[in-house]
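Thread: Newbie trying to understand structure tokens

Hi all, I'm a second-year student working on a class project, and my supervisor (Dr. K.) asked me to get a predicted structure for one chain before our next meeting. I've only ever worked with sequences, so writing a 3D structure as a token string is new to me. If someone could post the tokens and maybe explain what I'm looking at, I'd be very grateful. Here's the chain:
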Amino acid sequence: MKEQLEKIKEEALKQIGVSEGLEKLNDIRVAYLGKKGELTTLLKSMKDVAPEDRPKVGQLVNEARAVIESRLEEAKTALAKKAREEQLKREVIDVTLPAKKNSVGHSHPNTIALEAVERIFVGMGYEVVEGPEVEYDEYNFTKLNIPPNHPAKDEQDTFYINKDIVLRTQTSPVQARIMETGRLPIRMISPGRVFRSDEVDATHSPSFHQVEGLVIDKNITFSDLKGTLAEFAKEMFGAETKVKFRPHHFPFTEPSAEMDVSCFKCGGKGCRFCKGSGWIEILGCGMVHPHVFEMCGIDPQEYTGFAFGVGLERIALLKYEIDDMRLLYENDIRFLKQF
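---
Reply by user tm_fold:
Sure, no problem. This is what the structure looks like when written as tokens:
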């Protein structure tokens, strides 16, 4: 019995000595000290020992158990310490390293340009009004003095949902809707997405953005239009910016004009940016056509007004010297980080 006990103890201590993990130590504890372990099994055979030898054998078993438990605790402490040291090595923090920076997004160039336009006109007393992108043909064309046979209504130029509903080709329908309410005077701009059946290239897209403005009151003249847009140009492109108006035709304004601004790169001397002309075309404008007033329920004998429209992408391209409109839509983070 004594020899058997010594053998069990030696085997247990040997296994503890080569153990490399806490789970293995637990397996050893169960194998030798558990309910079905080696020492427990040996104790159950005490009935076969002579009565006078049982106290001595019991003492030997308890001593062996104490040695095994003591060695298990020592091994457990050593392995836990080793695991902790390895964890600290893996998770070491070098306080001299630069901190990790959060990648914070910012506004898109189009949004930056829109906010600048809105800030300028709100500062002049305008309100910002939005309207539906899917619009009735009546508001998109008819109420803007564009008759049914007008080329602008050709299906090659316009996305039709059905014969009465289109994806709006401009934000001018918002002006017609506001005029219909009869709340005068009006000073508003209407930014938003518009749609035209254009091929995608460096200066065209089937979906882009416009900002249109409308002013209606008594005794509004073309001089008011020129003064307003001249102030807008100076605020947007610099205090030295000059404006030039060229006669043009728009169905919903009469008279109508295209407005150019002096090149803010060369100061009007002529450069690659303005193609040597010293001027850059920026927007279309004019006095609201009397027939448009009549269709929207406003007396053209009592009220006059002006309207203008500018492509938001054009503002962004010019202001930030971007030479390809497609860059605004490609979501290339290397490009967008520049703004």
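A couple of things are worth pointing out once you decode it. The radius of gyration is 43 Å. DSSP finds eleven helices and ten strands in the chain. Feel free to ask follow-ups in this thread.
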